[in-house]
Each structure stands twice: as structure tokens, then as C-alpha cells.
Write a structure and sequence with these properties.
The chain has helices at residues 61-64, 67-72, 83-113, 126-133, 224-237, 251-264, 281-292, 294-297, 300-307, 324-330, 351-358, 377-383, 418-425, 442-456, 499-517, 523-539; strands at residues 2-7, 16-21, 24-28, 53-55, 78-82, 136-139, 145-148, 151-157, 165-173, 176-182, 205-209, 242-245, 276-279, 318-321, 338-341, 365-368, 392-395, 398-401, 405-408, 434-438, 460-461, 468-470, 475-478. The protein has 3 domains: 2-216 and 414-478, Metallo-beta-lactamase, Chain A, CATH 3.60.15.10; 224-408, Rossmann fold (3-Layer(aba) Sandwich), CATH 3.40.50.10890; 499-539. The protein has 16 helices and 23 strands. The strands form 4 sheets. The protein has an 8-stranded mixed sheet with strand order 6-5-4-3-2-1-22-23. It has a 7-stranded mixed sheet with strand order 7-8-9-10-11-20-21, covered by helices on one side. By secondary structure, it is an alpha/beta fold. Strand 7 and strand 8 form a beta hairpin. The protein starts with a strand and ends with a helix. The longest helix is centred in the N-terminal third of the chain and has 31 residues, at 83-113.
Length: 542
């Protein structure tokens, strides 16, 4: 009964943990890395085809984004997630696959223009996203789910995103049961739309995030609508556009919630009919998912609007841009407007086109409304606010001076602050045997761990990727050392020679896993399978 730490250890993105019990292997999340990564991640302890189950805390791509890659390399198990997370993943994972395929196509065209004939394979394809989506098992909050003889799980609303959850996992081996809780991303209290985090009462072990473990949100609940209205008033009065880089899932819907109120209460004077453009097909689809899950996930304030017959996410002057032509037309309209577009960290997507057209204009405002990972364009822009000289930004081969005002909607966060994190861990009736601190920047992860140990007398530990812990003996089997990366690393390289060969090897691993898992099949069936494999080899003249 072991726990291996793979991703988001002393880093914020790329969440992944691996459980092993009685020969079964379980991943808790399998996310993409975003921004700058300081340390190398350990490889999965087994081939992807040998993974039996995945437990997904929520749909954000830093927790779910590599599930199609898992499928491409042979995984055929079940993915357990809440019903709302399942709905969101059906949108987000397809979008991830689309981006992978488009980027591979662009890189291949670029290579051909430079005289290179090398083929570029995407990290995964649309059929991989479709395949893993079909393996998702939708679950209800609070339901005790028997996964297999050794494993039971339960999802609890953690208030970070629609469908987000902490996951309680009961593991039974040799007549002994241990309970481990994975916090996922712990939500901030008093967010618009979704409910506050729910506590968990007991656990032997806890794996918890620490994203904002070194800071506090404003003590009083900010009037975000009023703060947003002030930015709109100033910018629209100057004849500029307000450009909001926003995550398509979660944050965009919250901003729409505030804008509906601003419009209804006429909080912006002199611009009663100002247009708002949501330029993200995924954000439009996601908004429909929010409305479909309103009864199970919305908080009391949002539900009161629904009960009164008011759609909390729409209003006059709202325009939804789906096609590329609709997106391009936004910047050929001179009327002052609000543009909400993904990605939230400005790393890809349509937001980069809107920055190209607006970032150089002093009358415009770029308003950040979410966390910006180190090394992303969003982080560089956010850090440049108030600088004496404008930041130079390279967009589509063109150097642009960032003369627009750079603002941040303070306190608006989907993550709990330090007090929120402490409140969650203190909600356990008895102190867990160990608290593993993950999902935080290196210094934050370390300082929050020390806070838990010194100030709250918790047996806290911040593992590095590759660390292995025995849940039965309560002992570290292997304590990994940090392996610094010499240069920033993003997604696994897909354009290196051998990408197609890797896909072939993955298929072979899947076949081997199939044979190993079915070693007890009748001799007649085993012989038939052997004959089929040999026939294929003969056909290929291997």
C-alpha cells in the first residue's frame, strides 16, 4: 500500500499522485504543467497501460489535461469524477486535443518552410480525448463508491470550481484499512456562483494543496462588482477597451455574474449599453454546463436569482463569439467594449490576438482576474504594473510596448488563502498521522509546511517528485531529492524524432498489460490470443 508523488510537488501545476495496492495502480489527477517548472518530474511507476483507475479532483487542465495522453499510451481503466467535472472534461479535453493537433500542424508547416521535412506528431489526438472521455464514471457528492474489493472513495464539494472535490480514499489490504484524503484545490469562501468548501472529518493521511499558503485575501468580502465597475468606468470614459484574460472554465462565468449585476444596477454611468464579448468557444460551452448544474453546485445567492427567473450569466449587450471571423471582427469595431477571452495566463488562444490589438493603446486596460504562473506572459504583464518603462512583448513575431493600464481584480481567487487552508486542515476531528503539502511554488510549499509543523503541531512534510511513502508502515520508503531543470519545461516534447515510435511502443505496452491482467484466462483463449499475435508478426514480417 504505497503513495508515490509524481507532479505538482514544490510546483503549482501538473498535479499527479499514484496509489498502489495489491497490484492495482491508481492515479489521482494527471495534469499538464504550465509556465516555468523548476524541477523535473519522476516518471509514472508503471506503464500507462497498467494503470487501473484515475480519481479526478476537478476539470482544470493542470489536473486533467494529460488524461488523453494516458489513453494514447494504453490506459483503458475507469476515470472517476463528479458529474459536473465529467461534463466539463468532455469540453476541456477535446479542446486540449484540438490545441495539440493545431500546434503540431503549425510546427510542421514552419519546418517545411525552412526546408525541413520532419513530421511533427501531436502529444495526443482527438480520438484519444474521445476515448478517455468515454471512460469517465460520473459520481455524486457524498456517495460512497465501491471501486473494487480493496478501494472505496467519496467526493466532497471543495468549492474551487464547478464539480471540484476533495476525495476520500479507503484502502484495505491484509485486513487493515487506511484512509487518505486528497484535497484537490481548496476553494475560496464567498465566491460567486458556487458553494463554499465542505469539511472532511477524519483521515489517516492528507495530501493538501498550498497555492496561496503564504498570503491572505482581503479580510472583508470585497465588492468585486464595484471594483470591476470602477475599472470599466475609467477605461470606457477614455474610449478604450477592457481586455480580460480569463480562464474559460470558472472565472469567465464569475465575471459574467458580476457584469450582469453591473448592467442591472447601472453601475457604469454614461455607457449603459456597453458591449461585452466572450471570445472563447470553450467558455460558451462551459457556461451552458454551469447552468445545467445549477441545482447541485450553485450557492444560495445564485440560486435565488434562478428561482426568481433570472439567468445569472446573461444580460443585454452580451455577444458570444464562436467562429474565427467573429473573433477577428471584434477588433475592427471602434466602440469601447469589454473583451473576455482565454487563455487566462495569456499563453495561447485568442487572447493573444486581443493583446496585440489593445496592449499598445494607453486608453485600454488589461485586467487580470486569476492566478498567473511564473514564466507565463500573464505573470510578466502583471508584474510589470506600475513600472517606469513599458514592458516589451513579442506577439506573432511583432514587438509591442505594453502601454495599456495593467490592473488586477484583487482578492478574486478560486483558491483559499492561508487562513482558508488552515481552516480546512483544522476541520479534521483528530490530527492526521501525516499531512503531505503539495501544489505550491517551492518557497510557499516549504513555508506552509513549516507553519503546519511549528504553529499547529501537525506532522507535515513537503515531498519532492519521486518520493514514495508506505501507508501501512507510516514510513518513507524513498525520499526524493529535487532535480532542477536547466531550462523551463512545458509539456512533454512531441516534436522529437521517435514520437510515432513512442505511440507504437505504447500499443505494445497495452498488449503486454492485457496479457498480464488476463493470465488466468482459459488455456484455449490464451492459445487463440497467442496465435493472433504470431499471425500479426508473420504478416508484418517481423
Amino acid at each position: 500500500m504505497k503513495l508515490t508523488f509524481i507532479g505538482s510537488d514544490h510546483e503549482v501545476t501538473g498535479s499527479c499522485h499514484c496509489l498502489e495496492i495489491n497490484g492495482k495502480h491508481i492515479l489521482v489527477d494527471y495534469g499538464m504543467e504550465q509556465g516555468v517548472n523548476l524541477f523535473a518530474n519522476a516518471a509514472l511507476p508503471v506503464e500507462e497501460a497498467m494503470i487501473d483507475y484515475v480519481f479526478l479532483t476537478h476539470a482544470h487542465v493542470d489536473h486533467s489535461g494529460l488524461l488523453p495522453l494516458l489513453y494514447a499510451r494504453g490506459f483503458r481503466g475507469k476515470v472517476y469524477a463528479t458529474a459536473a467535472s465529467a461534463d466539463l472534461c468532455s469540453i476541456m479535453l477535446r479542446d486540449c486535443a484540438h490545441i495539440q493537433m493545431m500546434e503540431a500542424e503549425w510546427k510542421e508547416r514552419k519546418a517545411r518552410r525552412s526546408g525541413e521535412a520532419q513530421a511533427v506528431e501531436p502529444l495526443f489526438r482527438m480520438e484519444d480525448a474521445d476515448g478517455v472521455i468515454k471512460r469517465i464514471v460520473p459520481c455524486r457528492y457524498g456517495e460512497l463508491i465501491p471501486v473494487c474489493e480493496e478501494v472505496r472513495i467519496r467526493f466532497t464539494d471543495i468549492g474551487h470550481l464547478l464539480g471540484s472535490a476533495s476525495i476520500e480514499v479507503w484502502l484495505t489490504q491484509e485486513g487493515r484499512t487506511k484512509k487518505i484524503v486528497f484535497s484537490g484545490d481548496i476553494g475560496n469562501k464567498n465566491q460567486p456562483l458556487i458553494k463554499d468548501p465542505s469539511p472532511t472529518e477524519a483521515a489517516d493521511y492528507v495530501v493538501m494543496e498550498s497555492t496561496y499558503g503564504d498570503r491572505l485575501h482581503p479580510q472583508s468580502r470585497a465588492d468585486y462588482a464595484a471594483e470591476l465597475a470602477a475599472v470599466l468606468q475609467e477605461t470606457l470614459d477614455a474610449g478604450g477597451n477592457v481586455v480580460i484574460p480569463s480562464f474559460a472554465v470558472g472565472r469567465t462565468q464569475e465575471i459574467l455574474y458580476f457584469l450582469r449585476r453591473i448592467k442591472a444596477e447601472e453601475m457604469v454611468k454614461g455607457h449603459r449599453h456597453f458591449p461585452v464579448y466572450v471570445d472563447s468557444p470553450m467558455a460558451v460551452e462551459t457556461t451552458h454546463v454551469f447552468l445545467e448544474n445549477e441545482m447541485s453546485c450553485f450557492d444560495e445567492e445564485a440560486l435565488s436569482l434562478v428561482t426568481a427567473g433570472i439567468n445569472p450569466l446573461t444580460f443585454p449587450g452580451l455577444h458570444l463569439s464562436i467562429t474565427s471571423d467573429e473573433s477577428k471582427a471584434i477588433n475592427f469595431d471602434d466602440a469601447p467594449k469589454v473583451i473576455i477571452s482565454a487563455s487566462g495566463m495569456c499563453e495561447a488562444g485568442r487572447i493573444r490576438h486581443h493583446l496585440k490589438h489593445n496592449l499598445w493603446r494607453p486608453e485600454c486596460t488589461v485586467l487580470f482576474v486569476g492566478y498567473q504562473s511564473a514564466g507565463t506572459l500573464g505573470r510578466m504583464l502583471a508584474d510589470s504594473a506600475g513600472a517606469k518603462h513599458p514592458l516589451e512583448v513579442k506577439l506573432f513575431g511583432e514587438t509591442i510596448l505594453a502601454r495599456a493600464k495593467i490592473r488586477q481584480l484583487t482578492g478574486l481567487s478560486g483558491h483559499a488563502d492561508k487562513d482558508g487552508l488552515l481552516g480546512w486542515i483544522q476541520g479534521f476531528r483528530e490530527k492526521p498521522k501525516r499531512v503531505f503539502v503539495v501544489h505550491g511554488e517551492d518557497s510557499v510549499c516549504t513555508s506552509f509546511t513549516e507553519c503546519l509543523r511549528m504553529e499547529h503541531q501537525l506532522n507535515a512534510y513537503a515531498p519532492y517528485s519521486g518520493t514514495v511513502f508506505n501507508l501501512l508502515t507510516n514510513q518513507l520508503e524513498y525520499e526524493a531529492e529535487p532535480i532542477p531543470l536547466k531550462k523551463p519545461a512545458g509539456l512533454p516534447a512531441s516534436r522529437v524524432p521517435g514520437a510515432v515510435q513512442a505511440r507504437l511502443l505504447a500499443a505494445g505496452q497495452r498488449l503486454l498489460a492485457l496479457i498480464q491482467k488476463n493470465s488466468g484466462m482459459p488455456h484455449k483463449d490464451m492459445a487463440k490470443l497467442a496465435d493472433q499475435i504470431n499471425s500479426l508478426c508473420d504478416k508484418l514480417k517481423i
